[in-house]
Design goal:
CATH topology of the largest domain in chain A: Four Helix Bundle (Hemerythrin (Met), subunit A)
Shape of chain A: globular
Largest sheet of chain A: 2 strands, antiparallel
CATH architecture of the largest domain in chain A: Up-down Bundle
Strand content of chain A: under 5%
Number of helices of chain A: 9
CATH superfamily of the largest domain in chain A: GntR ligand-binding domain-like
Order of helices and strands of chain A: HHHEEEHHHHHHE
Oligomer: homodimer
Number of strands of chain A: 4
Largest interface: A-B, 22 and 22 residues
DNA sequence: GGAGAGAATATTGTATACAAATGCCTCAGG
DNA sequence: CCTGAGGCATTTGTATACAATATTCTCTCC
């Protein structure tokens, strides 16, 4: 998209994810425009996008606020993602091409390399992970599915749990990808779907465990009294 | 939403669905603004919404065009809807309350009334149908699911197959709703999910049959040479 | 003291002007 | 005749001013 609109989107999103704008904060267009150094017009676009990411909610009278995220909401998102990505995996297995399979193998090779290091390269891991899942989605051949998952995976929930992952957890993720490749190579949709669902839900529990650990250790701004929490800067490795 | 923005959205959407703007037509903001009697600002909002409805596609350089809908795309949308609404039904069954169940019974009673007439009231049928499915979605208790299905069911695909339905087909729809109510009353999620999936996919085949019949009878603007078609003004009764 | 009407304030919606970019057409050169 | 560079026309992006609407505060009346 355009420059100013993108800048506004990224800036506001970062402020929310960094906890700079706590859940429930009202987001006035003018104030944000000043903070981002742009006019209200691109800010309005950005707020629209953040709303579809569910990082921002709007009242019936069009006032925008930073969304509250309960653990329940996170579970909700992962459940949907497990179902939709599982469906994508099934379709991908049924339509697999040598080309797509090659891209997945390449992506997972990058992951293997990142994990093999003495101190794993989390950035490279996440990039390879992104490529891997993108290749599946592309192989699934459903534009609608891309649209639906895009607003569920890419934007809304970006955390950095992966940084807390030990080498073993990262390796398990790689291993599950290998299993997916095996299922794809055989064109077994049911198998691929099953692997993918557990792959995603395992990531949820990694998040939930980390979250419980964090909130037990230091019940700071991560978890407010009523169970709501601000979105964390966490990337979940799936 | 606001008045001008809503008018623009509805006007453009109607022009697309009525075939007034055939698939592939470029949608210039200024031209649309003039047609709708508003300025470009609300038109831009409207185009964004239509894009998320997938009635409009944008090139990488931000030009908007009326989307092409192949039968394949329609099948795609129904497959996704079957999965998501099936999931909603399962969740709803597991969380059913007397209140929600009451609303569903009331909605289906309205449908029964509309169908029982000598000449069925399709408008009342569709409204009851909408209420019925909305009650399920609400009982499912997932805001994300509402968002995902909203952009899949409400906006994107509105056809009027129901008008071609005979009383028997309308009655079958009512009957499937009754079966859903039975599953909900018993809290049987798997049963509810199964009914819902077949309910949706039956609607797809009703559409596909009607479409085949239409395009065989008069291969007019409904079906262009390459298999693409403009969206029809058709409401599918599910 | 509480409730409601109304004004004052704050916020969002729309229109318009201008800037930036994209696409198209022409024309020169091979 | 084809190709590509340049400029012109079209289209979208952004800023700003103003209008409409929502919210809040205050003051009156009960």
């Amino acid at each position: 998209m355009s420059r100013a609109s993108d800048r506004a989107y990224a800036a506001i999103r970062n402020m929310i994810l960094a906890g700079e704008l706590p859940a429930g904060t009202q987001l006035g267009e003018e104030a944000l425009a000043e903070k981002c150094g742009v006019s209200r017009t691109p800010v309005r676009d950005a707020l629209r996008r953040l709303e579809s990411d569910m990082l921002v909610v709007r009242t019936d009278t069009q006032r925008s606020f930073v969304a509250e995220w309960s653990l329940h909401d996170v579970r909700d998102a992962f459940d949907l993602r497990a179902m939709l990505e599982g469906y994508a995996a099934r379709r991908a297995a049924e339509r697999m091409t040598a080309d797509s399979l090659g891209r997945m193998r390449a992506a997972n090779a990058q992951i293997a390399q990142a994990v093999a290091l003495p101190r794993p390269d989390v950035g490279a891991f996440l990039e390879g992970n992104r490529l891997f899942h993108a290749a599946i989605l592309e192989a699934a051949g459903s534009r609608r599915l891309v649209a639906q998952l895009g607003s569920l995976v890419e934007q809304p929930v970006v955390w950095r749990t992966a940084h807390h992952y030990g080498p073993d957890a990262l390796h398990r993720s790689w291993s599950e990808h290998e299993e997916l490749i095996a299922a794809f190579a055989r064109g077994d949709g049911a198998w691929a779907e099953g692997i993918m669902r557990s792959h995603i839900l395992r990531a949820y529990h990694a998040y939930a465990d980390a979250h419980r650990g964090l909130s037990a250790a230091k019940p700071g701004p991560a978890l407010s009294g009523n169970g709501a929490m601000t979105a964390h800067l966490i990337e979940v490795a799936a």
